[in-house]
Amino acid sequence: MATKDAEATVRVVGGLGVLTGILLVAGFRTRLASFLIALAIAFISLHIFSLPTRELFDRLPTLFAETMSTAVVFLGPGAFSIDARLYGRKEIIIPYRSHE
Asked: CB-based contacts of 29: which residues, under 8 Å, 6+ apart?
């Protein structure tokens, strides 16, 4: 049986996971939600929470989720997100440089 501290930790992490997932799907505070998800996945992959197995192929989905959430942190929300409606769409302009 799990101790009360471990059970409380699981409930808090699960609740934060659900909350950040809802924020990410809605596109509200996208970078913050993605950062929290990336942080939680990093803690899980660093074995702060015990994992039942240590096989490489079982870690690949964790690595994929970490990579995707980190990419969203750096790229930001999409064009149809709540953040884009509130703060305006961001456009990345790459200047053209001719090789003369």
From this structure: 23, 83
